[in-house]
Amino acid sequence: MPLSEEQRRKIEENKQKALLKRQQRENGIPSPVSVAQQPPSSLGSTQSSTASSSTSSISDKAKKKMEENKRLALEKRRQKEQQRQSVVASTSKPAADFYGSKSKIPNSANTKSIHGKCLLISRERFTINISYQSNVIDIFKSSKTGSYNGQDRTWSFQIEEHDEIVAKLKPLKSSHNVHIDSLPKWVMETFTKFKARMSASTNASYVQECWNQVEPSLRDALMPFQREGVEYAFKRRGRILLADDMGLGKTVQALAITSAFKSQWPLLILCPSSMRFAWKSAVVRWVTSIPEEDINVVVSGRDNLEGSVIILSYDMLVKKQAEFYNYAQIEVVILDECHNIKGKKRFPISLVFNFYVFSDYKTARTKAVNEIVKDAKQIVMLSGTPALSRPIELYSQITLLEPKLFTFVSEFGMRYCDGRKISFGNKEIFDFKVNHSI
Questions:
Q1: CB atoms within 10 A of CB 405
Q2: What is the 3-state secondary structure (H, E, C) of the chain?
Q3: What is the Cα–Cα distance from 310 to 170, expressed in whole angstroms?
Q4: CB atoms inside a 10 Å sphere around CB 258
Q5: Which of 80-84, 107-111, 252-256, 329-333 has the highest mean pLDDT?
Q6: Would you state the pLDDT for residue 279?
Q7: Is the pLDDT at 418 greater than 50, yes or no?
Q8: Buried b (16+ CB within 10 A) or exposed e, 271-298
Q9: Surface-to-core class of residue 1, CB atoms within 10 Å of its CB (0-12 exposed, 13-18 middle, 19+ buried)
Q10: Averaged pLDDT for residues 383-407
Q11: How many C-beta atoms surround the C-beta of residue 14 within 10 A?
Q12: Pairing, β 355-360 against β 178-181
């Protein structure tokens, strides 16, 4: 059914009103006179031409406005980019700003970080694992003992030159962002100071003098591998940990070592309770110069501490500790099954992760042994299993032989036991439960 004239007029009016309102919202242009306010006579044949002309004029103004907004946006973006580039340029030209020249002064903040680590590869040499850096290589080439391995592309040096090389590399930290992890001080002391001590005591005359003092029955009974162990103990001035397997004669070696220092006896033998009389039998058999009556096995708290050889258990030592303070200084000691002094107290701090933190590395047994043995000159420690479950158990035994080697247990634990720091509020606790580091 065709539309009437009235319907066409209404549709055209609504169309014009909608176009005017939309254009007014987009461009802020005042709306023209409404079509409804015009007299009906003016709508006839000229109505379509009027709508098309007004729509065309509005469309041109909208395009101009959009172009203007686009130009302003591009201009703002260009200004921001110029500001950013000027800031970067001002921070990346320290040579010209501070040195008054355009020479290239290295800036560690803008240089890629290079990390190197010193690793011990033998008793005499260490290596530095580090990526290529020209200044570092120049320092390596200037060293006296430096040696380059073309296959591994690594440099190695004599351990005596460690401190000098690290000191030369230290300035590169600020100038070229080169970081070097040096060897710990206790490692250096072990392989430098100990080496000096060993050289003073390894002369043939000293070792031969010790052999001459060994009980003849023991000297003749030693097998070749046992003689090597005894001689090594003499080179160590009688301070040694023998960790031979069971059945290889650790008892005979220990008596041979201590008999060389018989002038400093009484000899104190600490062992498990079940081994006290076995040790008495061994002394009677091998050290024939000592009468059996002069061997004292302490079995109760009422027994005295007299005799050339005193044998007692670790637990009895705790009870008799006070009496040892009034006794003559003990200078020669044998610690059988020395892993018994690994003593450490531990308590669980997490039932979820099931790990332990060691709160005190000295139990009553360990404290007693340390107090009695700390001033002994000769200490022979015996154990077929020095570490039963985890490396931290070696700490108490090592500190008996070398009290000044580790200042804190954390030094040993963090390097050799894969230790972790666990924070509880303002406190930090070390966890050394891991048992696979060594």
A1: 17
A2: CCCCHHHHHHHHHHHHHHHHHHHHHHHCCCCCCCHHHCCHHHCCCCHHHHHHHHHHHHHHHHHHHHHHHHHHHHHHHHHHHHHHHHHHHHHCCHHHHHHCCCCCCCCHHHCCCEEEEEEECCCCEEEEECCCCHHHHHHHHHCCCCEEECCCCEEEEEHHHHHHHHHHHCCHHHHCCEEEECCCHHHHHHHHHHHHHHHHHCCHHHHHHHHHHCCHHHHHHCCHHHHHHHHHHHHCCCEEEECCCCCCCHHHHHHHHHHCCHHHCCEEEEECHHHHHHHHHHHHHHCCCCCHHHEEECCCCCCCCCCCEEEEEHHHHHHCHHHHHCCCCCCEEEEECHHHHCCCEEEEEECCCCEEEEEECCCHHHHHHHHHHCCCCEEEEECCCCCCCCHHHHHHHHHHHCCCCCCCHHHHHHHHCCCEEEEECCEEEEECCCCCCC
A3: 55
A4: 28
A5: 252-256
A6: 95
A7: yes
A8: beeebbeebbebbeebbeebeeeebbbb
A9: exposed
A10: 79
A11: 12
A12: unpaired
For 109, counting Cβ atoms within 10 Å of its Cβ (0-12 exposed, 13-18 middle, 19+ buried), the class is exposed
Which residue do the tokens 């000096």 mark?
196
pLDDT exceeds 60 at position 45: no
Q: For domain 195-431, which architecture applies?
A: 3-Layer(aba) Sandwich (3.40)
Q: Which CATH code fits 108-183?
A: 3.40.1170.30
Amino acid in the structure at residue 185: K
Q: How far is CA 104 from CA 92, 98, 322, in A?
A: 11, 12, 72
Q: Given a cut of 50, is residue 204 above it in pLDDT?
A: yes
For residue 359, what are its two tokens? 């709160």
Burial class (CB in 10 A: 0-12, 13-18, 19+), 416: middle
Chain segment 326-377, per-residue pLDDT in tens = 776 789 999 998 888 875 544 344 433 344 444 444 678 888 888 888 888 9
Domain boundaries, the chain: 1-59, 108-183, 195-431
Residue 245 scores a pLDDT above 80: yes
Task: Give the pairing of strands 332-336 and 267-271.
Answer: parallel
Residue 202, pLDDT score: 56
Tokens of 434: 């891991």
pLDDT of residue 89: 59
Q: What is the pLDDT of residues 118-141, one digit of tens each?
A: 888 888 899 998 888 889 999 999
pTM as predicted: 0.60
How is residue 6 written in tokens? 């009235």
